[in-house]
Amino acid sequence: MNKDKNNVAYVDGQNLYMGTSKSSPKWKVDLAKFRIYLRDKYSVQKAYYFLGFVQEGIDYEKLYDAIQSAGFIVKFRQHNSAMVGKKKGNVDSDIIFSIMKQLAEKEKFDKVILVSGDGDYKMLVDYLIEKKKFEKILFPNKKYSSSLYKKIGAKHFAFLDEPDLKRKISYSKK
Question: What is the pTM for the complete model shown?
Answer without folding.
Answer: 0.89
